[in-house]
Design brief:
The protein is an all-alpha fold. It is 71% helix and 0% strand. It has 19 helices and no strands. It starts with a helix and ends in a 5-residue tail after the last helix. About 1% of the residues have low confidence.
Length: 361
């Protein structure tokens, strides 16, 4: 199941489903495996097939904490298939059982409920769902939707997803296509789903309207890194720090500098920028924070620069950041993206981490 979820996080849904189905073969009562397989099949245009898995997950474990999510996945599946009344039924159930769940859960259910009602011709109910959604999150717009259409190349899913988005517009959820806040929110949603080229277009549009927007420049630098344009990315981050050196997000922007110089094999600049980022960043907050990755990159730069002692010492500092967490490994850092320049540069950085002594797995 861990293998499956890691693969799905990278949008490798076929491989993820194969792992989930292997887990089911080991344990026919594994409700989580059925739930995940049913959800992921949607992104391959196999929504009808996935319905049976989602129904099985609910039948096997009807009192699980994941019940609201499973009900929402069924709501979403029927929405994708254009079965509006069934979608409404499952959305209503999910909204009702999600009262004690995070806002993201309720927002997702209400968004699908609004779209289904709009397409079913229930205008009052559609507008009511949007009102409840906007009450829970007054800033919620079409641009704040997760860009799920960027998770897959499947044409069937993309068309079905576009219909749901259009349903939300019919229900009255506002667009925010030209405002700075709307474009930055859309860019972050796209980048979170690895739609880096589209995210870059959004922040570049912000920069055209507001050349002094430091956050837009910083994010452009990050997006250019993963698009294999690190030289340009450095200039963007330099601009961000010049415009707003004391910004609350400036320590994160310094981390971008560290990664960019490492990708360009500029080891001296990488060491300097990584050390500045290490000093500026707060504690790790687990391995999801920037600081552990900055230290791993610093170790790689030291290793390639021939400073073996400093490389090893940096790995030891990395291990001490969060002693209660499993140590960060090379496998946890790997980002699998299509851009060949990025892949080559990332491979060199990862090899430097290995040279420094970072464990493979």
């Amino acid at each position: 199941m861990v293998n499956a979820e890691n693969l799905a996080w990278r949008n490798q849904f076929r491989a993820a489903i194969a792992e989930a189905e292997t887990a089911i073969n080991y344990d026919r009562n594994n409700s989580q495996a059925y739930m995940n397989a049913g959800q992921w099949k949607q992104y391959l245009g196999r929504t009808e097939d996935g319905l049976a898995d989602l129904e099985t997950a609910l039948r096997l474990d009807p009192h699980s904490e994941f019940v609201p999510w499973r009900q929402w996945y069924l709501c979403r599946a029927h929405n994708l298939l254009g079965r509006w009344e069934q979608a409404i039924e499952w959305c209503d159930k999910s909204v009702a059982t999600a009262r004690d769940n995070p806002d993201a859960m309720r927002s997702a259910s209400l968004a699908d409920l609004a779209a289904a009602n709009a397409w079913a011709g229930h205008d009052k109910e559609a507008k009511d769902a949007v009102a409840r959604l906007r009450k829970a999150d007054p800033e919620f717009t079409v641009q704040k939707l997760q860009a799920e259409d960027q998770w897959t190349d499947n044409a069937d899913f993309k068309a079905q997803w576009a219909r749901i988005v259009e349903g939300l517009r019919k229900a009255g959820l506002p667009d925010e296509p030209t405002s700075v806040a709307g474009r930055l929110a859309r860019a972050e949603s796209l980048s979170g789903n690895m739609g880096w080229d589209l995210a870059l277009k959004e922040v570049e549009a912000v920069i055209v309207d507001d050349p002094n927007n430091a956050k837009a420049h910083a994010n452009a630098g990050l997006y250019k890194l993963v698009l294999g344009r690190s030289e340009e990315g450095i200039a963007e981050v330099e601009t961000a720090l010049r415009l707003s050196p004391n910004d609350d997000e400036a320590p994160t922007w310094r981390a971008y500098f560290c990664f960019l110089h490492n990708h360009l094999a500029q080891w001296g600049q990488a060491i300097e920028s990584c050390r500045k980022a290490e000093n500026a960043l707060p504690g790790a907050h687990g391995w999801s924070g920037w600081k552990p990755r900055v230290l791993a990159n610093l170790a790689a730069a030291y290793a390639w620069a021939g400073h073996d002692k400093e490389a090893r010492e940096t790995i030891e500092r990395l291990k001490l950041l969060e002693p209660n967490f499993t140590a960060l490994t090379v496998q946890e850092i790997i980002i699998e993206l299509a851009n060949p320049t990025f892949r080559a540069q990332e491979a060199r950085t990862l090899e430097g981490m290995r040279k420094a002594g970072l464990a493979e797995e």
